[in-house]
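sorry for the late reply, my laptop died twice this morning and i had to redo everyting from scratch. anyway the thing you sent over, i finally got around to it. pasting the sequence first so we're on the same page, its 428 residues, then the predicted structure underneath. double check i copied it right bc i was rushing
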Amino acid sequence: MAKNVIIVGTQWGDEGKGKIVDLLTEHVAGVVRFQGGHNAGHTLIIDGEKTVLHLIPSGVLRNGVECVIGNGVVVHLPSLVKEIEGLIANGVNVEGRLKISSASPLILSSHIAIDLARESTNVKIGTTGRGIGPAYEDKVARRGLRMSDLLDKNKFYAKMHTAISFHNFILENYHKKPAINVDEEVDHWLKLSERITPLIIDTPAYLNEMNAQGKNLLFEGAQGTLLDIDHGTYPFVTSSNTTAGAAATGAGLGPTDFGAVLGIVKAYTTRVGSGPFPTELNDSIGKHLAEVGVEFGSTTGRARRCGWFDTIVVGRAILTSGITCLCVTKLDVLDGLETIKICTGYKLDGKVLQHPPLSADDYVNVQPVYEELPGWDEPTVGITDYHSLPEAARNYLERLQEILDVPLDLVSTGPDREQTIIRNHPFN
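ok and here's the structure:
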């Protein structure tokens, strides 16, 4: 019987989802990306070779695996074509395996210009400046362009002219920025579309057919739960739903088509960009986590903020995504620390909370409540047998599992595909 598994991040993104998706694609016929845009990046290291993906599902590095970009993903055509060409240049077989939803919204240069103009003001969200938010705004306002518009060149020209004229009005009159040349934009995109239009399909029908044939599918999320537009630390969030429910809406299948939800979580916590971060460490330990964990964004290169593991954050992810099992990544980054802390609650106005505050604004006022555990000196890098881990490392993992009350089925002990402990396989 086929099984469909959703993979989501349980913190503020950058949890190492790409590696785990790549690892599990050995057991699937297809990988589906269901939200986000090229503001996200998944870094894969296979046999020591590094590959960074932004739009194309991580399953592309497994021959024979179908890769589907769902309707929940906003697509910047120049970036997608560049990514395709880069993979082909590195010997990756992309042709014939990549499919794109006809309903995927398009990110135009004017979206990017508006995004950058907003971030140049004193009121910053900390976006990547890739035009993601403005593209989702146009989708909801029902004035956006979709992938299917590329199939009719005359209609595409008219729709793009209307869209960019509207954006130029905002750029010139509100932001006092230069306008985008519509004709140059249309010409560039129509040339790129010749490469892309053969990939456009009816993804709900395509995925339903794979289901009917009994084929396993993996649904790949981007970012993390606390960046969800509804359930995250609003307004310091992304512009899409990053929780597991978005797999249904962003791919076109029903909720009953999914069998499990695997949450990916770092052995500590990181955040990139602005926004609250209760367990952030601005000390030598935070610096250690950043340096050993190589905590720099794969898309932007921005340094990530680092802190202790936060069970309130991960607990909220488990609740909102119905997570059935967890994978802990970057355990090896904690090697050599004398003491390790776990945040087990937030103190606010004299009370200890076991859930996030009702107002996201109160995140900045909470004080983390910590539980301390002894660290370990022995290296965990590359260990693939759970019982070979240092006793203190096992105690740490088992304490996390006890607090979160979700099975900890996988542990990543290094960046390479093979550096993984599998206690229980999600596709079993």
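The chain has a mean pLDDT of 92.
thats about all i looked at so far, will dig more tmrw
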